[in-house]
Structures are given as C-alpha cells and as structure tokens.
Specification:
- By secondary structure, the chain is mostly beta strands.
- The strands form eleven sheets. Strands 2-1-20-19 form a four-stranded antiparallel sheet, with no helix packed on it.
- It starts with 11 loop residues before the first strand and ends with a strand.
- GO terms for molecular function: peptidase activity.
- This is Tricorn protease N-terminal domain-containing protein.
C-alpha cells in the first residue's frame, strides 16, 4: 500500500530545568519518534507516546526523568495516546481506538494488565489528585460541520473546552478555551498568527465560578497548574524560533519541564495523490519542492524525472500555480507503465471558476497529447485494466463521471448529477467490471460507491454520515478509502499543518 503520511520524521523528547539549563534528550540514543509526554503526579515517571514500533503506529511507554526504567505501558495495532499515571501509581489512563476504531478513554491496571474502556469518553484524560475522578475533553453531541459558520468546506472539531488539568487542591479544572473557527486556524500555518485562545478554570463541584486567567491575542495551549503559577505554551511571539516545540509538561515541583522538539522541523509531504505503477515506478505532483509539475521516480525517491512541466502547454496561470490551486494533478498509470494520464488546470475550490483539461503523457516525457477540449473542467482520471479507456470527472456545464475510449475519443456518460450532489475521484477496478468513486450526498457528507461500466448496479458502500473519500482498489478487489466515521483521535488544535486530522484508512469488501 502506498499512502501519504503527514507527520514529523524526527522528533524527540527533551527535558530541561526551569531556568533553561541542562537541556538533554530524555531517551538519549533511544529516541524514536517520541512525543506527548506527561509527568506523573509524584514526578517519578514520564509517560509518552512513541512510534518506535512502526510509523503511524502510536503506543504508550514510560520512563523515569533521569532516563532510566524505560518500559512499555500498552502497545497494540490500535492508536494509543495521552497517557497519565494515577496518583497511587497503580493505574494508567490513556486514549485508545481499540473499541471499534473510535477514540475513548481507557484505564489500565499496571499490576494485572487488565484494562477497560470508559463509555462515550474521548480525549486527553487527567486524574484528580485524590484519584477518584478523571476529567477529559469530549466533542460528543456536536455537529459534523465546516469550520466557519457551518458552511466552510473543510471540517473541524467543535470542542470549546479542551485539555483539562486539575488545580493542586483538586477544587478547580483548568482548560484552554477557543472557538471552532480558531480551532481550525490553530493548525493552519497561514492563519496561526490570527488565533486567540484563553486559559479558563471552573469550580469542579458546581461547574460555576468561571475565571479567565489570560487575556490578549495569541494561541495558548497545554495549560498546567503549578503550585504558585500557571504554565502554558504560547504562540504569536515576535521572535522566530526555527524549530518545532510542543506539548510541554512540568514536574509537580515546577523544577523541570519535558517537551517535544524537532531541531530541523520543516513541513513537507510528497503529494496528495501519489501513485505507484505495476512496474514499481512512483509518480507525484511535485508541489512541495517544485511548481506542481509531474515527476516520476523510483520508490526510494531516486532517479527523479520531470515528465510533464506545468507550463509547457501555456494554459495555466503562474500566480495560481504559486498558490497551489492550479497545476498538474492526479496522475494515473496505464497498466503497462508506458503512459500517464493527468489533469492540468484549476482544482479544489477553484474548479468552480477555473478550467482544467486531460492530457496523456509518455512515461519518459517525450510526448504529450491533449484529450479534452476545455468546454468543462475535466480531471481525476483512472485507466481501465486493459489500458484502452479512462474514467474521469467533469465539472461545469455538466457534472460527474465520464468514460473515454482512447482510440476513438468517444465519450459515454457513466453518472449524471448537479453542482451540489456530484461524483468525483473515480478508480477503475483491477478486473475491469466496476468503478469506485466518491459521491457528495450533502455539503458535509460524502459516500463511497461503485457502479458497473454501463451505469447500472449502483452500490453505496458507506453511509457514515461523515466524509468518506479517495477510494482506490487493492489488487485482490477490495477498496481502500479514508473516513471521518470514527471522529478525531486528539484535539484538532494540537495538530500541525493538516486539514483533515480526523482521517483513518479503512479497507472493505465490495460485496458489503
């Protein structure tokens, strides 16, 4: 399976004295994608999340502050995160997707290894100092909607009260408070400087006596109540720090702080739609390091070749290319690996006003040919299993999916729809009889469907009520897609530079 993972590749936990002296790697040479650390209430342990067992496979470990005693807490194929040790040291509370892929709070008995899930709980648990209560943040009973007034196209989390922490006397609960709009902006680099949030506490017994502890502009996160002060992570500072620092946790006595840092942090990813040929050649849109042109290479990223320059046809606007909304996107390999078909033009939200065309290109870049005339926006092509046809989506005067015979250029209608309910991102099955695609049901809901080549036997495979998208076939006829069905696995504002932090990959059989 080829997939794009938006994640740091080199992040470590550091511990430092409160006066900023004696900074060191907490795990020394054993550091391996470690993050989200937290001191125990007695200061004897630091729990943390690690991907040492595989990229994207987050597990929970703990270690003493002096770097000794590294031990596993829980390590499974599920997502595990945000662990803290109980005040008596006998239990650990953490977040896991072990129960039907949905994030919930779990409690693990360290003595006997038994764990249990707290029903309808979600994120960032915190023990009370007497060990009798667990506070957590939850987006239960909130709508699946856009991040602005409910109509902005990307979705985010409606979670105004987040990352709870107990006061030293156990009488108050502290959290950071922000709007849904600011939650979205907090993990977008172009809007981070505009974000404001505040640290707020309430009386635990009465859930009243709301106190705002901070004011002014800037993102304030990861709050913690120390003996005589509040600590938190802040943005919107005038000095630029050329590295990523996040997720601080102070020792109970306020003497030390542990945090995650990437000295050489730089936001990069390959492409939103990479594709691997049967001959094991990778094709990408070089969006991060280039100008949205098409580049092929070996899977280890060697032997890169620019096979289709975005400006070679003279049909795209350079300023729009610079903004990332125009370029050569969604390349698809022919079965024999000799050809690529791709879309050139305006994509994403700009497709409503900009044009796009389909091109066929030889794999070595020596020849290209225009396939569509530009009367409608055409893109997201996929080759048939025998290489004689392509399926693609149209937008403009007509909508949804079309099939083109490459020899005759004859186009047939596969599906028809409107600008509000349409089909997109088609993928031809390996045995050639069906096409999978994403169908927009409403402004906020997308389903995965399949259909026969003659437009009959439509099957709706997902009805999650969220955003199911980007379906592709496996070699054995199953379908891989990404889904929002199971919700967020962490507070959305904590993520860096990712629009769809709720996504999980799912594989299903087509005879569902």
């Amino acid at each position: 399976m080829l997939a794009t993972i938006i994640s740091t590749m080199d992040i470590s936990l550091y511990i430092v004295n409160a006066d900023r002296s004696n900074e060191r790697k907490l795990l020394g040479s054993k550091s391996t994608l470690d993050y989200h650390a937290s001191f125990s209430s007695d200061g004897d342990w630091i729990t943390f999340t690690t991907e040492r067992n595989g990229d994207g496979n987050s597990d929970k470990y703990r270690i003493h502050p002096d770097g000794t005693g590294l031990s596993k807490i829980v390590a499974t194929s599920s997502f595990e995160d945000a662990a803290t040790v109980s005040p008596d040291g006998n239990k650990v509370v953490y977040v896991s997707t072990a129960n039907n892929y949905k994030a919930n709070v779990w409690v693990l008995d360290l003595a006997n290894g038994r764990n249990r899930s707290l029903p309808e709980s979600y994120l960032r648990p915190a023990w009370s100092l007497n060990g009798e209560w667990i506070a957590f943040s939850s987006d239960r009973n909130t709508q699946w909607r856009g991040h602005g007034n409910g109509t902005v196209w990307e979705h985010t989390q409606e979670l105004p009260y987040t990352l709870p922490k107990w006061s030293p006397d156990g009488k108050r609960v502290l959290n950071y408070d922000m709007t849904t709009k600011n939650t979205w902006s907090a993990h977008r680099p172009e809007s981070l400087q505009s974000v404001s949030s505040h640290l707020v506490s309430v009386d635990f017994e009465t859930v009243t006596d709301r106190v705002e502890h901070t004011s002014g502009a800037g993102l304030k996160m990861f709050p913690q109540w120390l003996a005589n002060a509040l600590s938190y992570l802040a943005s919107n500072r005038s000095t630029s720090i050329p590295r990523s620092i996040c997720s601080p946790s102070w020792s109970p006595d306020g003497i030390k702080v542990v945090y995650e840092k990437d000295e050489n942090w730089e936001y990069r990813f390959t492409d939103v739609f990479p594709q691997l040929s049967r001959q094991c050649q990778l094709v990408i849109t070089q969006k991060q390091l280039g100008n949205n042109s098409i580049v092929t290479m070996d899977p280890d990223l060697s032997n890169a070749h620019n096979v289709f320059d975005v400006f070679v046809t003279g049909q795209v606007n350079a300023s729009q290319v610079g903004k990332g909304t125009t370029g050569a996107f969604q390349s698809a390999w022919s079965p024999d690996g000799q050809w690529l078909v791709l879309g050139l033009g305006s994509w994403f939200q700009s497709h409503a006003t900009g044009n796009a065309l389909l091109y066929c290109v030889t794999a070595n870049g020596s020849f290209f040919e225009q396939l569509t005339n530009g009367s409608v926006n055409t893109g997201f092509p996929s080759f048939s299993s025998d290489g004689t046809k392509i399926v693609y989506r149209v937008w403009g005067k007509e909508y949804s999916l079309r099939i083109m015979d490459l020899a005759t250029r004859r186009v047939t209608v596969l599906t028809n729809s409107t600008s509000t309910n349409y089909d997109n991102v088609p993928s031809w099955s390996p045995e050639g009889s069906r096409i999978a695609f994403r169908r927009r049901v409403s402004y906020t809901i997308f389903d995965i469907c399949t259909i026969r080549l003659n437009g009959t036997d439509l099957q709706v495979l997902t009805t999650s009520g969220g955003n199911d998208a980007h379906a592709v076939w496996t070699a054995d006829g199953r379908i891989l897609y990404s889904t929002a069905e199971y919700g967020f696995r962490d507070e959305a504002a904590i993520y860096d530079n990712t629009s769809q932090s709720y996504r999980q990959r799912v594989v299903i059989k087509t005879d569902k």
